[in-house]
Design goal:
Layout (H helix, E strand, L loop, with lengths): L7 H23 L5 H27 L7 H24 L6 H23 L4 H21 L1 H7 L4 H16 L3 H11 L7 H37 L1
């Protein structure tokens, strides 16, 4: 497989692929550096990066035809985005009790959020309706993160690294993930066919939405463990 030197789209796929692989290795190694309550959270973030890398590899190969079918983006998102949302659930659960019912709501909503957007972009569903439903699901997730029981548990926590980490992770889901409904809007309503530009934007976003997300979780876990040890020795 040979790409032109000036092919920025192919370069963005390669950069995202290698970045996701490197982050996956770091997180899998990092799961051994943290205490037991953090291992699942860090491993879930590693799995999200591995899924993203696999989807990126397939999309990079598809780029040889000059366009990336919409399905190549969504096969990665439909697994990795729910994994990250659930990682946030267990992230909060490490410092307090979160209701099990919320777990299942987040599973269903995060999967449907991606699936409905795909149906709209692929033409299996009315584009306007799919966009609006997907937007409602995303806003529901943000509502849980900002105003729900997860926010309450974090605010009541005395673990400062978790409070700071939750702030940044929530910001990524709010600001970083905004590119997905925006891309959905552009392709669904403007008849835009991705010839590389949108894929570049998605690939760049992966550095924040998948890689930085996972590294932030690992850093928070290590700092929280350090604070816990200092308290025990005090």
């Amino acid at each position: 497989m040979v790409f032109e030197t000036t092919d920025l789209t192919a370069a963005s796929f390669s950069a995202a692929l290698f970045g996701l692989l490197a982050t996956s290795v770091l997180l899998l190694m990092g799961s051994a550096w943290v205490e037991r309550q953090w291992k699942l959270v860090v491993t879930m973030c590693a799995c999200a990066c591995i899924v993203g890398a696999a989807a990126m590899f397939e999309a990079r190969g598809a780029w040889q035809s000059g366009a990336v079918p919409v399905v190549y983006h969504y096969v990665g998102w439909v697994v990795s985005m729910p994994l990250q949302i659930l990682a946030l659930f267990f992230f909060v659960g490490s410092v307090g009790r979160v209701r099990p019912g919320l777990f299942w709501r987040l599973v269903v909503v995060s999967v449907l959020m991606v699936f409905v957007r795909y149906l709209g972009e692929a033409g299996f569903m009315n584009a306007t309706l799919a966009f609006l439903i997907g937007l409602v699901f995303w806003l529901y997730i943000l509502g849980e993160l900002f105003f729900g029981s997860m926010d309450t548990v974090v605010r009541d926590s005395s673990v400062k690294p978790v409070i700071r980490g939750y702030f940044w992770l929530r910001l990524i889901v709010t600001v970083g993930w905004a590119i997905y409904p925006l891309g959905n809007f552009i392709t669904s309503f403007n008849g835009y066919v991705d010839t590389g530009g949108l894929s570049i934007a998605y690939n760049i976003a992966d550095f924040l939405n998948r890689m930085a997300f996972g590294v932030a979780v690992l850093a928070t876990a290590m700092l929280a463990d350090k604070q816990s040890k200092e308290v025990d020795h005090a």
